[in-house]
Amino acid sequence: MTEWQALFEGSRMVPPHSQSVRLAEELSQGFQIALKHLDGASIVQRLLEEPQGVQYQLRVSLFDISHRHFFGRTWKSPLLQQTRTGLGQPDRVPFNEVLFFHTSLRHPSMVAVVEAVAVTQKADGSQRALGCGFGILRLFSSKTSPGEPHGDQADRRLNLYHGSPRALLHPTLHEPIEQNKLMTLIEGAHLQCSLKPHPALEPAMRFLPPNTLVSGAESIPGVVPSCGDTADSLRKPRLLKSFTCYLDKLSLTLYPSLEKFEEELLQLLNADHLNRRSWGPDGNAVVIQERRLHVGVHNGWGFLERPQVVVVEPSAEGGRGRSSSFRRGSLSRLSSPAAHVLALRSRLQLKEMANHPAFGIIFQLEYVFSAPVVGDGKVSSTSSFPRTAFMQCLRWAVWCPFQEPGNVGADVTLALQGGDVLGPSGVMVYAAPPPDRSSTEVKDVERGTVKFRFSSRADGRSPSPASSLKNRQEDTSRDKKPPSPSKGRSEAVLRASPPQSPQGPGLSMSQLAASPRYRTISHSTLSPWQQQFPSQLCPSPLASAYQLSHIELPCASGIAHLEVNLSQPGESPREEQLRELTFAPVHAPVTALGTQTPGVTSSLSRSSMAHLFSVGFPEIVDLSGQVAEVLDPAEPVNFNPQREEADHLQCNELVLQFLAFSRIPHEGMNADWPTSVYFTFQLYRFPPVTTQRMTLLAAEKPEKKSRAKRPCVLALIDKDGTVSSGCPGLQLKYLVDPGFLKPGEHRWFLRYLALHTLQIDVWDSESLLLIGSAAVELKHALRQGRPAVQVTQELEVITTEYLQDAMLLSRDLPGHGATAAINAFTAVKGRLHLRLGNVGHPADQNQKRSKTLPPVRSHVITAHDGTRGFGGGSLSSRSVSSLNARNASRAQRLVEIDGELASLLHGRMKEVGVAAGRVERETEEARRRKLERMAAVRRYEEQGLVGGQAKPNIMGRREERLQHSRDLQLIEAYRERSKGESITSMLSKAITTQHTLYATLGTAEFFEFVLKNPFNVQQTVAIESEDPELSVIMNCGEWRHFKNLTRTMTPLEEDMFHLKETTLTPQVYLRPKEAVHIPLKYQTFTSEHAVITQQPANMRGGRNANVAQKHQSNTVQAKTIKVTFRAEDGKPLAICQVDVEPTPHVIDQTFRFHHPELTFLKKAVRLPPWDSLPGTPVGGGEATPQVHVRCSDPNVICDTKRAAPGEPQDVFLKVAGGQSPQIKKFFIMVFTDEWLAAPAQIWQVYVHFLQRVDVSCVAGQTTRQSLVLKGVQALRKVKCHTSHPEEIQIDPSAVFVLPPNTVQDLQIGVRPGKAGSKFVYLNVVDVEYHQLVASWLLCVSCRQPLISKAFEIFLPVGGGKGSNKKITYTNPYPNSRAFLLSSDHPDLLQFKEDSFQIKGGETYTIGLRFAPSRCAGTEEILIYINNHEDKNEETFCVKVQYQ
């Protein structure tokens, strides 16, 4: 038996109760139990026949009192004999044992049960064990906070009780158990013990499963064992050095062949499936959907990290491609004889390997099957069944690479195991061939084999030349950890790193997540107070940057991003699988990162706070002029909805004041960065806001004694570039009154304030680069009956940075499926000082609306029957209001209502030369015609007075009569033609019912139309809608769902509608004089998507400007939709005219992605598991809801797939790229209800498209590259800015003129200080209009130069003084040369001279000064010696040991 097998067999344990796991804390905590001595052991002598030679033992187990469940494993102490302490003293057994364990089940019901056992030797050599009693050690108390042990850390006397610990399983034992009458105390017997936390166990937690009791003397692979009999390896654990290993050319062979094996397996599964369901053969059989392989590192106790899951594909043995006839997820068995093995084409990387015989690699082969599902055992007549997927483990194997020497770099062949052999995964395994079938060698082959090539970095070599650089970087990073106490050859102590996500087929998750605090707000029509709502809003925890970049637990993950291959599962192209795009950065959501907690105090000193509030910011006052009540952001907010409803000040004026910005020094940035900023955000349904540019005013007299810098006050910048002379800061006001809100929306607005955070993006107004994002909780803006409130907060501005340890090009990797991993972490770029206020105002009585909607009238529309009086075309002088205002129509002249007819009637006057002019309006044309006729009459009368002109006058009169007759005929023809249309229009108005909807993006607006059959015969009515967004609800379940949401108490019918065969139009059957309710809904997922330009606001609206506008942005388009109800003869019975009024929507989350232009952006946003959301009841029994997503841009592919219970949900995106520097904006709606009634979350996504440039360079030297800048149509004065000014030099660096339609060369010099890969942003900004002209994404891959010499020095820790050292350098050239000196750690090492010149062959002494360090550890510093062209000549490595 190997060492791994021995540990695995001895470390079996019982898992905790499933209900208790739900109460587990987020992080596990280490503890130690000290068992010192047992007093009163002689009381058991009367129980033994031969008390001589009795030895005692302690056995400790964990027990769950609430569920009467033992879990973990039972620890047993060594056998010891009792000793005499003196006359009159009880007998004592000195155990002096220390137990260690870590757990996240820090609940009062979790206890440790200690049993004392007496062991004697029998005559036959066997042992006899007798229980002497047991005690209950309380681990956690309900009076203390979770994670603290019960009571203090002093020694405790644990009383012992008669009987066996199995008595705790008795159903009559309830809390408190110690006071139960069945528990009998043993007088005079007790155990001296103690319990306290053990933080030093944290680095070794990954090597030990939770809830496992161990002692320091036990073997734990991965932890360095201590020397000596009394040594304890877990008191201050030291870890073995871990490294990365690789598995190449991995393949699995199954007996007798892959095709025969799978064929036999499917026959057994189908036979079992038919026997269970009592089906006949119908062609719907169980098929293989996917073949998976789980690979992980196991140390005998458990997996060090979650095993990786990869997809293996059938392939010809030794071939690279997959079988030509294989199509993943579509075949039940293989049809090609060439597919002999299951192969993995990419390389597997395992990071947590250590040189220990018990470290093993676990392989587990798992098949995913798809089986048909039909209820009640009935066979459908159709061949399309709903199918379900299930997984089954077929084989597993374990291999310990360091059990025997010589395994590194060799080809390995392992025999697979199956059947009743217990594996590390703890699942049932498919049966292996019978054991009596053949010899051992043949049986190993019959079970199957796995082959692979193993290579590692432990032997000093790397699998590929490119990865050797990454080797060096990883080893260097490990050496930077604090060293062990050994003075000799110190080894780096590795801290426990949280487990990373497994890499699947074409999918790798970045290490980013954030956790929401409350369940997301639902925008449904239910009352917001009926949903689950916290009565006390506590401050959200401020997660550190390290935690945010390494969260992977399902209960902590909120939203994460993945790079994913979006090919469908059924696709199997011949091309090789696409690798992850390393230049596509992910995004860290910062919704809950910038708020304070009770344990976090402000970073400002009192003098800085006094300076900040003495500059004269505008005060927030109430209606009476009193200063608003100041709230503490660290205190929880007690929210009472009834108090908000009863407040007489129903108008809320939200005030945002941007006060100051605190700079934080960063490597590679100037000390005065940034010099000016602007902000972008969106509050509630108001339009997105882009503020003006604001400069940072530094303090005139900085504090000399204080290390912290004072915050810089923000001041507005005018159009001419000068600083505004008004009040400092920027103030924005939002007035939310009943005229702004829809009926019943006031409660939703209060819920928005209670649960949402406002995300504010901070931009550098000079370079137009994103500095970071801050988030402020809006719950402090709830007034709770007070006239005005205000709160001042210091928000951290956080951004995501991306670094890669070493340059790994795709050509250096074994296959295109692998790629270099990018380390993404969050960094604090500064602190924003913000004041948030809310001032109450009385509501205007003229605009006051009802707070709630009428439950019936709001969603039930009654049709007009048109039987009321109709005034027709009467010319009565009575007012129209006295008639039936709906059906009345006042007669008008035809020439006044039809301009075309007026122009025809006026044609003769144009022929006689009368200028009629162009017809602008119908009434103006009629008036002009009258004037012309009046003038013609006057001329006729004047001409009639002249003699001899009678005959022409008579002829003119005839012509006029003829023309008039023609006009009458034209009018008659026009009336006949338009009579039918006019009558039809009037009749349509009589049966038309108008209804107004206030539509929001993604939200379904439901209403019912009462349709009545006016005839005495039955009718089949067809329902036709002009717009597909307004549709009939034909599903009864969907209709019931919306009726419950809107509380519509109207009848519901099953199978009410049927489809017309030719047009698929919904139809409903109506009996004579019958009225039915037709369910309709309007829902739109589209919105306007304009290409956005990146620039601050140029128009100055004033610091007190009200930005709440009447016409808001981000809305759907206003439209009018007609729904026609037609009878069997095609004539309409009724018309419902729906007027859609747009309403802006609420933005819950904002994402920004940067991506190369003209390429596809592929992202996946990860949601947390449903049961891990805060506020979800434990054991509620609710099924995991299916998540649905919709995108507002039809050109963006957005999809999600159903996940297994407890698994996170992924939302996949695919966006087509545009030209640089365009910004694409769209919205994503996330639904958690089946019928998509209202989105649970609405995300706003910005995609910045940039020009991509790849730069390959060497650390410590300058690499030149040229960029082409194209001029625009107008002349521009521009300047270049970069996100890393210390590493990127640009020529020209000053402002220059960019002529129109020309080409300008930009020379950039890249000089990184450290090896690795990073993303650098380069913007070209118009300095006059502050607009982005061009933008580049520089993908810098930097490799480390060759190290020619290495040094090691030891420096003391602390003291506040640096150390001076010297090294020599000899000029290898025969002539005189000048050299430049630089370092990759300028904060730790400074040179006496930055440059020197020496003659050929001479030696120069370089003076070094090392900065002091406050903590112990190891650091490697590189010294670059470059020539006058800044090309690297030599590189020295100095390893500094701080002791």
Automatic annotation (TrEMBL):
Q: Where is this region: Disordered?
A: 432-511
| InterPro entries registered for this protein in UniProt | Ig_NPHP4_1st, Ig_NPHP4_2nd, Ig_NPHP4_3rd, Ig_NPHP4_4th, NPHP4, NPHP4_C2-like, NPHP4_SK
Q: Where is the NPHP4 Ig-like domain?
A: 993-1144, 1151-1248, 1260-1343, 1348-1443
User: Residue ranges of the NPHP4 SK-like domain?
Assistant: 921-990
Q: What spans are recorded as compositionally biased (Basic and acidic residues)?
A: 438-449, 471-492
GO biological process per UniProt: negative regulation of canonical Wnt signaling pathway; protein localization to ciliary transition zone
Ranges for domain NPHP4 C2-like: 607-841
Q: Name one cellular component (GO) term.
A: ciliary base
Protein name as annotated: Nephrocystin-4
Origin species, per record, is Aldrovandia affinis
